[in-house]
Amino acid sequence: MRRARRGLPDPDVSEVEKKLVAEMGEHVCIYSDVCEKYADRANSVEGSNKALDWDNVFSRYEVTPSRSKQYYLLSVFLGDIVASPQLCRQLVKRGRGCKT
């Protein structure tokens, strides 16, 4: 089911940011394009019952700089699980976007 049909409230961006900082440190960041891609996919009919394409996830992971690998995976999972492109954009607006 799409996120809207599940009736889940939109996540509070300030609470999400606080939790991310508490768990991963002050320098936590999100790759906006990655997060939004997986959020859009999770909201699409085709993505609703489909597992992640792990070959694609890991091939992109391998080319991500070492210091940023954890943030790449965070962006994938945040997008896929929370399924909110808006949250991805709001985190970046709050200064949590990764520098490429």
Task: Give a structural overview.
This protein is mainly α. It has one domain (3-96). It has helices at residues 3-6, 13-24, 32-43, 54-63, 69-82, 85-96. Helix 3 packs parallel to helix 5 and helix 3 (32-43) runs antiparallel to helix 6 (85-96). It starts with a helix and ends with a helix.
Short recap of the structure:
This protein has 100 residues and is mostly helical.
Helix vs. strand class: mainly alpha
Q: What order do the SSEs take from the amino end to the carboxyl end, as H and E? A: HHHHHH
Shape: globular
Report the major sheet. Answer: none
Question: Would you identify the regions where 5 or more consecutive residues have pLDDT less than 50?
Answer: 1-7
Q: List the domain count as a whole number.
A: 1
Q: C-alpha Rg, in Å?
A: 13 Å
Oligomeric assembly:
single chain
Number of strands: 0
Helical fraction equals: 55-70%
Q: What portion of residues belong to β-strands?
A: under 5%
Total helical segments = 6
Calculate the mean pLDDT score and round it. 87
Head-to-tail CA distance between termini: 33 Å
